[in-house]
Design brief:
Blueprint lengths: L2 E8 L8 E6 L7 H11 L3 E8 L2 E7 L4 E2 L4 H12 L9 E5 L2 E8 L2 E7 L4 E2 L6 H5 L5 E4 L3 E5 L3 H6 L4 H4 L6 E7 L7 E7 L4 E4 L6 H12 L3 E6 L5 E8 L2 E6 L1 E9 L2
Parallel strand pairs: 2-3, 4-6, 11-12, 13-15
Antiparallel strand pairs: 1-2, 1-18, 3-4, 4-5, 6-7, 7-8, 8-17, 9-10, 10-11, 12-13, 13-14, 15-16, 16-17
């Protein structure tokens, strides 16, 4: 019969936008090499692997080259598939045990809300090569658990950023977030996310990056509720709230593909 696998466009209501994620339900334990091979074959920014547990599900995420410790869009996609496949009842929360602790997803009127840990960025000196690789003059540089956060002066600067990905690979972090206040009243802030060190030059929409962006902009803008736009070529939007040390991230999903792996 093969192993169920899906492709879901996250943080979008229409196909071919947002961030595509693979979701695989092996049914039996698989080793790291097998999961990494499947993620490489899928060739998406992340492929999620779900394993049933007594009190929820184990969840791991792989890029085509490495395993990562936190991923938002593939968690959103995983929750959607659990409900669609009947592995969770409608209205039942999805509980995921991950390398970043317990993560929860809730269905809310056609949307999915993620409950993630915040990963705030502390002010840091720009490492050699960072600003040159991005081609920007930063207003702020910070370092979170995973990434550098670089604030620039305008949305236009975020859009125009054309990184030297070879140089960014040398920084020794998962990725680099570039952000600014939105020039549109519809959104509070905009961002882009570059992670060539993890095998992804630019990630289309990055839920986990908003675990850093939301506490940053909540302090800057004086509001706990934020509407975010990630300015990749595919684009995506996220509704976010800061609750203490947790970040709630809400978005839509669209199922694109359903199939089976025969290996």
């Amino acid at each position: 019969m093969g192993i169920p696998i899906y492709q879901v466009d996250s943080f979008t209501e229409v196909p071919f936008r947002g961030n595509p994620a693979g979701v695989c339900i092996p049914g039996v334990p698989r080793d790291d090499s097998w999961m990494q091979s499947v993620a490489r074959e899928m060739n998406l920014s992340e492929t999620a692997f779900i394993e049933r547990r007594e009190d929820g599900f184990g969840l791991r995420w792989f890029t085509p080259t490495v395993e990562v410790e936190l991923c938002g869009h593939a968690t959103l996609a995983s929750a959607h598939i659990l409900w669609e496949a009947g592995l969770l009842e409608p209205g039942e929360d999805a509980r995921f045990h991950s390398r970043s602790g317990l993560l929860t997803a809730r269905g809310r009127a056609g949307e999915i809300e993620l409950d993630f840990p915040e990963t705030p960025a502390e002010r840091a000196a720009p490492p050699p090569g960072l600003c040159e690789a991005l081609g920007v003059k930063p207003r702020f540089v910070g370092l979170s658990r995973f990434d550098y956060l670089v604030e620039v002066g305008s949305e236009d600067e975020v859009r125009a950023t054309a990184p030297d990905f070879v140089e960014l690979r040398t920084l020794g972090v998962r990725g680099v977030i570039v952000t600014a206040v939105s020039s549109s009243p519809e959104f509070d802030f905009v961002s882009r996310f570059f992670a060539p060190g993890a095998g992804i030059d630019e990630d289309p929409v990055t839920g986990s990056a908003h675990c850093t962006l939301v506490p940053f902009w909540a302090r800057r803008l004086g509001t706990m509720r934020l509407h975010a736009h990630q300015l990749s070529s595919r684009g995506g939007e996220l509704w976010c709230e800061l609750h203490g040390e947790r970040v709630f991230i809400t978005g839509h999903v669209t199922l694109y593909l359903e199939g089976r792996i025969h290996v």
